[in-house]
Specification:
Elements (H helix, E strand, L loop, with lengths): L7 E5 L1 E9 L2 E5 L3 E5 L1 H4 L8 E20 L26 E8 L5 E9 L20 E10 L4 E4 L7 H6 L12 E3 H7 L4 H7 L1 E12 L9 E7 L14 E10 L2 E25 L1 H13 L4 H24 L47 H8 L1 H11 L9 H19 L13 H10 L10
Parallel strand pairs: 11-14
Antiparallel strand pairs: 1-14, 2-8, 3-4, 5-7, 5-14, 6-7, 8-9, 8-10, 11-12, 13-14
Helix pairs in contact: 7-9, 8-9, 9-10
GO biological process, one term: response to ATP
Pfam families: P2RX7_C, P2X_receptor
Function: Receptor for ATP that acts as a ligand-gated ion channel.
C-alpha cells in the first residue's frame, strides 16, 4: 500500500509543448556558393503537434525552369525510338508528363522526354559529411505546460525558481543541471546513444521524453520533470527501405521575365517531444477501497489451506509406504456373520437408527474397508497423529482414552475428506456402517459408547 501509494487518488497529465530553436550555420554549396541558414531556413515545414525539425544536409538542383527535358533513369523509361514513349503518360515515380519523344540523355542512353521543371534532380545520395553538421551546436528551448484536471493542479518545466539570467546561461546536463529546459541538439542525440555527424547525413527521428511523477500530498509534495532521449527510427540504411528523413522545398526567383527556382532536397532530424505523467493525492475513499479489496483475498485462505493439507496427506502416505514397504493389496477383513439385509459389502452391523443403515456399496462387492488406501488414509496411526499435530501443534497426545478418542474422531474426518470432500458448514455427513465400525474396532471406547 505504501510503496505503490494505493491510498492515493491518481490522475493523468494533460500537456502542451512548444519548442524554440536557435542557431545559425554557413554552408558552401557547389555551383551555388555560400548560404547562411537561420531558423527560418532549417526549421522546414510544420511537423505536427509536439515536434520540430532541423535541416542537417541538402541536395541542391539550381536554375530549374518549366520546359521539356529527358527524364532521369530509373524513373524515366530508356527508349530507342519515339514509339517507345507514350504522350501524356505519367506515374507516381515520374518527374513530369511524357511528350511522346525519345531524346538523348547521355552518350549511351536515350529516355522519354517529359514536360517538367528542368533540369530534373539527378542526385540520389546526400553529401557526406553532412553540409549542416554544425547544427550539432544549435539549441532548443522546450516549454512544457502540464495540468492534472482532477486536482486542478498546473505546472510547467520552467520552474518558479528559475530566473531570466539563469535561463540565459543554463544548458541541460544530466549530471550538473538536469532541470534546465534548454538543450544542445548534439547533447540530445548523444543522450540517445547516437552520433550526430552520422545521423545528420540522412536524418532520422529522436524522441524527447518528459515524465512527470507528482506526489501532491502535503510536505511530501514533489512534482519535477525528468528527461530521457531515444532514437525512434531504424538507423541502419542497409536494413530498411527509404532510411532517414527528408523533404523538398524551393526558392523562386525571376530571371529576365522567366520564373526560375532552386530546388532543395533537405535531410534532417525530427525531434518528437512526448510527455507522460501521473499525479497522486491522498483519498480516504481509495484507502477504504484498497483495504476492502485486500481483505477479500483472505477468503481464499481456507481454500488454499485445504489444498495444502491434501498435499500433506498424500506426501505422508508416500513416506509411510516407503518406510514400511507397504504393498498395495487388499486387507483381510472377514464378512460379519450377523450382517443386515441392506448390507451389500458383508461388513456392516445392524442398527435401529435409519441414518446408520448405510452400506458403502450399491451392489454386492468388495467392502471399502478392505482397500489399502483405507488403511493408509483412515486408520494409519502415524498419519492421524501427524494430522492432529498439524491442526494443533501444541496438543498433548499422551496415552489414554482421550488420545484414542482424538484418533477415532480424526479417523472419521479423514474418511469424510477422502470419500465425500469438505461438507457444507453445519452439516453432518452420514458414513457407511462398515467404515464406522471398522474405525471403532481400531480405536475402541472403553465404555463401549460412541458418538459420530
Amino acid at each position: 500500500m505504501l510503496w505503490n501509494k494505493e491510498y492515493q487518488e491518481h490522475d493523468y497529465v494533460v500537456s502542451s509543448v512548444t519548442a524554440k530553436v536557435k542557431g545559425v550555420a554557413l554552408t558552401s554549396l557547389p555551383d551555388v556558393g555560400d548560404i547562411v541558414w537561420d531558423v527560418v531556413d532549417y526549421s522546414g515545414p510544420s511537423q505536427g503537434k509536439n515536434s520540430f525539425f532541423v535541416v542537417t544536409n541538402v541536395i541542391v538542383t539550381k536554375k530549374q525552369r518549366q520546359g521539356k527535358c529527358p527524364e532521369v533513369p530509373p524513373y524515366g523509361k530508356v527508349c530507342r525510338t519515339d514509339e517507345d514513349c507514350v504522350k501524356g503518360f505519367w506515374d507516381q515515380h515520374s518527374h513530369g508528363v511524357q511528350t511522346g519523344a525519345c531524346v538523348k540523355f547521355d552518350v549511351t542512353r536515350k529516355t522519354c522526354e517529359v514536360s517538367a521543371w528542368c533540369p530534373i534532380e539527378s542526385k540520389k545520395k546526400p553529401p557526406k559529411p553532412a553540409l549542416l553538421a554544425s547544427a550539432e551546436n544549435f539549441t532548443v528551448l522546450i516549454k512544457n505546460n502540464i495540468r492534472f484536471p482532477n486536482f486542478n493542479f498546473m505546472r510547467r518545466n520552467i520552474l518558479p525558481e528559475m530566473t531570466e539570467s539563469y535561463l540565459k546561461r543554463c544548458q541541460f546536463n544530466r549530471h550538473t543541471d538536469s532541470s534546465c529546459p534548454i538543450f544542445r541538439l548534439g547533447d540530445i542525440v548523444k543522450e540517445a546513444k547516437e552520433n550526430f555527424s552520422e545521423m545528420a547525413v540522412e536524418g532520422g527521428v529522436i524522441g524527447i521524453q518528459i515524465k512527470w511523477d507528482c506526489n501532491l500530498d502535503g510536505f511530501l509534495r514533489n512534482c519535477l520533470p525528468k528527461y530521457s532521449f531515444r532514437r525512434l527510427d531504424e538507423k541502419e540504411s542497409n536494413r530498411t527501405l527509404y532510411p532517414g528523413l527528408s523533404f523538398r522545398f524551393a526558392r523562386y526567383q525571376t530571371e529576365k521575365g522567366v520564373e526560375e527556382r532552386t530546388l532543395f532536397k533537405a535531410f534532417g532530424i525530427r525531434f518528437d517531444v512526448m510527455v507522460f505523467g501521473e499525479a497522486g493525492k491522498f483519498s480516504i475513499i481509495q484507502l477504504i477501497i484498497f483495504i476492502g479489496s485486500t481483505l477479500s483475498y483472505y477468503t481464499l485462505v481456507s481454500v488454499i489451506q485445504s489444498f495444502l493439507f491434501n498435499l500433506f496427506q498424500i506426501a505422508m502416505v508416500g513416506v509411510l509406504q516407503k518406510g514400511n514397504n507397504i504393498i498395495d493389496k487388499p486387507s483381510q477383513v472377514l464378512p460379519r456373520p450377523n450382517r443386515p439385509a441392506w448390507c451389500l459389502c458383508g461388513c456392516c452391523l445392524p442398527s435401529t437408527h435409519p441414518q446408520e443403515q448405510l452400506c458403502c456399496r450399491q451392489s454386492i462387492g468388495r467392502c471399502i474397508t478392505t482397500s489399502t488406501l483405507f488403511e493408509q488414509l483412515v486408520l494409519s496411526r502415524p498419519l492421524l497423529e501427524a494430522v492432529l499435530l498439524y491442526r494443533e501443534p501444541l496438543s498433548d497426545l499422551t496415552e489414554g482414552e482421550q488420545r484414542i478418542a482424538a484418533l477415532r474422531n480424526c479417523s472419521y474426518r479423514q474418511y469424510i475428506s477422502w470419500r465425500i470432500g469438505a461438507p457444507p458448514r453445519e452439516s453432518i455427513p452420514v458414513m457407511p456402517s462398515c467404515s464406522v465400525w471398522r474405525i471403532r474396532e481400531e480405536y475402541p471406547s472403553q465404555e463401549g459408547e460412541y458418538t459420530v
